[in-house]
Design goal:
It is a single chain. The chain is of the alpha/beta class and 263 residues long. It is built from 13 helices and 8 strands. Helices cover 48% and strands 14% of the residues. Strand 7, helix 12 and strand 8 form a beta-alpha-beta unit. It has 2 domains: 114 residues, Rossmann fold, CATH 3.40.50; 115 residues, Rossmann fold (3-Layer(aba) Sandwich), CATH 3.40.50. The strands form 2 sheets. It has a 4-stranded parallel beta sheet with strand order 2-1-3-4, sandwiched between helices.
């Protein structure tokens, strides 16, 4: 891609935002925050028509359906320089597992590899690809960051969100004792093994309380919904937000799991 356009003006990278199902249905603010962060970093953001990343089918063993979804997604974002997802879980599916689905189809495998190579989790894209070192945002309070399993283990997202959170004015970052421990969501895992999932998230809630943080932050909405639900059921005052909302300065409204304020 050329770095110049016209009279020396830089070309803005065309970034396709993979919104994710949960963001679309449960927390659109995360999508708007992602767009703001990307545009502030100099990107031209587009949102192609899209569906699920295919992870539920993939995890259930339905590789045929997962591959059909992957074909649609790859085609939808083919005109983008980059693909960015505000989710380590969906990002892991797009980057790590799409190429696996087409191991026996040479032409499609090449397209999947190219797609995976230009796809990134949101915060890692901002820091590792665009070189963003700080954001112009303010958030008053003490926060703790939970490392979601897919983002941490599949995409090596750990230092990047902490680096940017430390640049937010008024924010104090504290570490959970078990920041890297699963929250118990795991997509279909929480639905199939409810009692075990509840036991895992109960341990996570204890860890959050011990941190004395007023706000819990993570980069995966599934994890956040799971942890927010448990904290609220136990009467905890801890509020839960997606990292993109805080970094974009869009964390003034109701936290995740709280009812929206109607005019």
């Amino acid at each position: 891609m050329s770095n110049e356009q016209g009279a020396g003006r830089p070309v803005k990278p065309r970034v396709g935002l993979f919104v994710t199902c949960l963001v679309d249905l449960m927390r659109p603010t995360v999508g708007f925050a992602a767009v703001k962060l990307l545009e502030d970093a100099g990107c031209k953001v587009v949102v192609p028509a899209q569906t699920c990343c295919g992870q539920p089918a993939y995890n259930s063993g339905d590789r045929t359906t997962a591959a059909d979804i992957a074909r649609q997604t790859i085609a939808a974002f083919e005109g983008c320089d980059y693909v960015v997802a505000p989710s380590g879980s969906c990002g892991g599916m797009l980057i790590r597992h799409y190429p696996e689905l087409f191991a026996g189809e040479p032409d499609m495998a090449i397209r999947a590899e190219r797609f995976a190579a230009k796809t990134h989790e949101l915060v890692s894209f901002l820091t590792d690809v665009l070189g963003v070192t700080r954001v112009a945002a303010r958030f008053e309070g003490t926060v703790a960051y939970h490392d979601s399993c897919s983002g941490l283990r599949e995409l090596e997202v750990k230092a990047q969100p902490r680096r940017l959170l430390k640049s937010v004015e008024g924010l104090t970052l504290v570490e959970l004792d078990e920041a890297e421990t699963c929250c118990g969501f795991g997509g279909m895992f929480a639905a199939k093994y409810g009692e075990l999932s509840n036991a895992i998230v109960a341990r996570k809630a204890d860890d959050v309380r011990k941190s004395a943080a007023g706000t819990l932050i993570a980069g995966d909405l599934g994890c956040l919904l799971n942890m927010a639900g448990k904290l609220q059921r136990e009467g905890s005052p801890v509020r839960v937000r997606h990292v993109a909302e805080v970094l974009a300065g869009m964390a003034d409204g109701p936290a995740i799991g709280e009812p929206e304020i109607k005019p």
